[in-house]
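Narrative summary of target 7.
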Amino acid sequence: MTEPHDADSFASRLLRQEDSLKPERYQEHRMQLEQQLARAERNVEITKWVVVAALLASVVGMYVAGSRVLGSPDPFDKDATALAVFFGALNIIGVIVLYLGLASYFSRFTPRVRRLREDLQNESIRELRRDVAELRQLLEKHNP
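Modeled conformation, tokenized:
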């Protein structure tokens, strides 16, 4: 059987191997992760507002074009007006942007934010491990 002292030295060697990034490079890497996370969160927020605006535009376009208050939204109809055609087109474009925005939000932006948060959390754990290794080294020096 191994003695506890041997296990500690083995663990110390393993923790020293974990020191893959130097403190300067680590800070730079962490800062880049934080910037990427901030950018991804901004993209999520912008996408939310684009989806809300597209929803409002499509509802207004649908209401005005469907009620035929301003004329027919069909450009080939004899009752068509430029304003009614505009609101019909606004409805169609709003629906397209709405679906594209929702798809981007749920398939692209939200998973990226989640992944970046996990990466940042992993970096924090790596930093804690490095600090624990340094503390163990200090304790080994003071308590032979």
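DSSP finds three helices and no strands in the chain.
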